[in-house]
Amino acid sequence: MKTPIFDFVKNYNDQNQSRFHMPGHKGVPFLGCEPLDITEIDGADVLYSGDGIINESENNTSKLFGSLKTFYSVEGSSLCIKVMLSALSLKFKNPYVLAARNVHRSFIMACALANVDVDWIYPKNYTHLCSCNIDENDLETAIKNAKRIPDAVYLTSPDYLGNIADISAISKVCKKYGILLLVDNAHGSYLKFLTDSLHPLDLGADMCCDSAHKTLPVLTGGAYLHISKNCDNDYIDVCRRAFKIHSGTSPSYLILQSLDLCNKYLATSFSQELSNCVDNITALKTRLAENGFAIEKSEPLKIVINAALSGYLGTDLCEQLKKYNVIPEFYDQDFIVLMATPQNKDSDFEKLLDALLSIKAKPSIKRETIKPTYHKRVLSLRDAVFSPQEVVSLADSVGRICGAATVACPPAVPVVVSGERITENDIKIMSSYGITHIDVIK
Ligand SMILES: Cc1ncc(COP(=O)(O)O)c(C=O)c1O
Question: Rounded distance, CA 318 to CA 331, Å?
Answer without folding.
Answer: 7
